[in-house]
Specification:
single chain, mainly alpha, 4 helices, 2 strands
């Protein structure tokens, strides 16, 4: 909301009920999305990862040769420091390999292939 106003046409003074419904639905979407992710992960036996880590894995899997953190950050539309922090945490969890060919900033990351 900007300056106390609702940002959409459903929030006009003629439609206070629509604004209330829209706000209520907005409050339900986040928990619903998390519940669907959790159920999907449980059904497939996947680890419960934060969305940022899942997005980084998507970006890395689209580039099998690996990416520098800067390139991964550009593709994921996040700050390079965010990617570096994610890689550090994910390397510790053995989800990504943070070593590889040297780059200008000395870090390379690629998804770690797990043995079946």
């Amino acid at each position: 909301m900007v300056r106390g106003r609702c940002p959409g046409p459903w929030c006009s003074t003629e439609a206070p009920e629509a604004a209330r419904v829209a706000a209520g639905l907005g409050g339900l979407l986040g928990p619903l999305w998390r519940a669907v992710l959790r159920a999907t992960r449980n059904a497939e036996g996947l680890p419960d990862l934060p969305e940022a880590q899942i997005e980084l894995l998507r970006v890395l899997s689209s580039s099998p040769e690996g990416l520098s953190p800067g390139a991964a950050a550009t593709r994921a539309r996040v700050a390079p420091s965010t990617v570096s922090n994610l890689v550090r945490a994910m390397s510790a969890a053995r989800l990504v390999d943070g070593s590889g060919p040297s780059t200008t900033n000395g870090l390379w990351c690629s998804p770690r292939r797990r043995k079946p």
